[in-house]
Amino acid sequence: MRGALSTVWFDRHKISRDCPEDRESMDDMCNSLGLIIQGEVNAGIPKHRIVIGGFSMGGAMALHLACRYHPDVAGVFALSSFLNKDSAAYQAVEERLGADLPLPELLQCHGTKDDLVLHQWGEDTSELLKKAGMATTFHSFPGLHHQLSTPEMELLRGWILKKIPPLTSS
């Protein structure tokens, strides 16, 4: 956006896997979102009961936040999202794997008819994260464009409930 005010999570040079990431704007947003996570932890919610996720750029932001800054969360999800080919998130996952440190599990969903964020970009992101050492699950939704669907939300709900089961009262 060349510095103009906008409602996106971070600056992008263009919607493409082949351009460099604007790491400064990503890091700034990760720091801001990290304060929210820390506020939840301070309020008594353990990180292993926090899931981070988002749609489109929000999913990419969630991947950066979970892979680079908060890998000790219960999981991360990315819907209709992608990472650039040289993303810092891939390197962060490789470094954590090499140091035998835990990584969050990824649930990724993508519509096969998405013409803004191509389905292949989502699939490639999942494969590159898996190759780097992350446990990933990728679900394709036939005919779905750059949007959410009820079946996708039901799948996500089930996954979240497995990652963070309801607390039982004692």
UniProtKB/TrEMBL annotation:
It holds the Pfam family Abhydrolase_2. Residues 7-160 form the Phospholipase/carboxylesterase/thioesterase domain. Its EC number is 3.1.2.22. It is an enzyme of class 3 (hydrolase). InterPro entries: AB_hydrolase_fold, LYPA1-2/EST-like, PLipase/COase/thioEstase. Keywords: Hydrolase. One of its GO terms (molecular function) is palmitoyl-(protein) hydrolase activity. GO terms for cellular component: cytoplasm. The keyword Hydrolase applies. The keyword Nucleotide-binding does not apply. Belongs to the AB hydrolase superfamily. AB hydrolase 2 family. This is palmitoyl-protein hydrolase.
